[in-house]
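Blinded run. Sample ID left blank on purpose so nobody reads anything into the name before looking at the predicted structure. Input follows.
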Amino acid sequence: MEKAEELRWRSKQFALRVIRMFKFLPRTEEAKILGKQVLRSGTSTAANYRAACRARSKAEFVSKMGIVVEEIDETVFWLELLVESEIVEYRKIQELLKEANELLAIFASSRKTARSR
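Blinded prediction complete.
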């Protein structure tokens, strides 16, 4: 599988995992608010990466990848906040958080490489 195709698939799978996690959050107001934030940024990551892959120029790709990096970084923040506020136990979203951090590293590196070329 081509690297871009693999990342499209991986980011979409991540978005689906975020959606499933959202369904199982407690029904408190705090969980609802934080959950909607992580739902928005987690799914937006995949959508924006897909758009970056369709960029018509290097400048457009770099710009769109900047958005992807912002969204996945924001997702990491909301996931950490869910744990640190004791809304969700770390062990329940440990793998999701790990994947978010891995995607962040990959997308940030990809953007940096594209900018330097």
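Unblinding after everyone has recorded impressions. The chain has a mean pLDDT of 97.
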